[in-house]
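Researcher: First entry.
Model:
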Amino acid sequence: MSQRIFIVHGHDDYARETVARFLEKIGFEAVILHEQANMGRTIIEKVEAESDVGFAVVLLTPDDEGAVKGGTPEPRARQNVILELGYFTGGWVAPACARLSGVRSTSPAISQAWYGRKWITAMAGGPHSPRSLPRPAMTSTGTK
C-alpha cells in the first residue's frame, strides 16, 4: 500500500494542518493539493495527477451553510470537498472520512447518500482523534 495519503479539506486550516502533521509523524506522506505545483493544470487535473495514494482522508468541516429550498440553513462541508469525496469513492481509493467536531467546529450536514460510509469522528480533546487513522503498513522485516 502506498504511504501517500490525499487530504481533502475545506477552509479549516487548523484541521488540515493538524491531520497532515500527525500523518507525517506516523510515517505517511500527506498530499495537500494546494502544496503541489500547478504546472498549468486545472484543479481536477491536479487531483487526478496526485491521486496515486493509499487512501484519502476527507475532512468534512462546516465551512458553508446549506438548506433545502425554504429550509433553515445548516452547517455543511464545502462543495469541492463533497466533489473530491465522490472522486475518491468512485475510484479505487476508499476514503477514510473524518467529521471534525468540538471546540473549533460542529458536525456538518451530510447527504444521506453517504450514510453507508464508515466515519471517524474526531473531537477536540475527545476519545477519537487523528490517532484513529490506520498506521503505515509494515513489511515482514518490521520496517516500512
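Researcher: Second entry.
Model:
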Amino acid sequence: MARKFSPLRKGPGTAAGRPTPPAQGRGAPARKPAGRRPGGGLRSGAGAGARAGAGAGAGGKKQLDFRGINCPLPVLKLNAALMTKQLRSGDLVEVLADCPSFEADVKDWCKKQKKLLVKCFVNGNHKVAQIQL
C-alpha cells in the first residue's frame, strides 16, 4: 500500500517544513546559570521561625522564600500555595521577596483575596510581608 503524501511533512527531521532546532550538545541537558536557586519554597514550623528570627507559635506560622524571583511571580506563587492547600485559613504566612514592586503587589493581592496584611517591611536587602490567611 502506498503512503499518502502530506504537504506538511517534507522529510525526516522537519516539522511542518521547517528544520528542527539544533541540539544543545551530545545529549547533555541545558545548564542553568550558577547562583541562587530561584523559586523559593514553603517552610513551616520551627525552621521557619528560626530563620525569621522569631519563635514559631502553634498558630501555623509558615514562611515562603521568593527571593531571586521577579514580580509578579512571588504573588502568583503565594496564590498557588493557597490554592493547592499548602496554606490553610488561619495561618500566618511570612513572604520574603526582593523584587521592586513586591509591596504594592502583595497589598493588592491581600485586598482582592480579602486577607489581612499584618505587616510589610524591608529587612536588609529583601522585603517581608506578614499575611494572616
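Model: Note on the second entry: The two ends are 66 Å apart (CA to CA).
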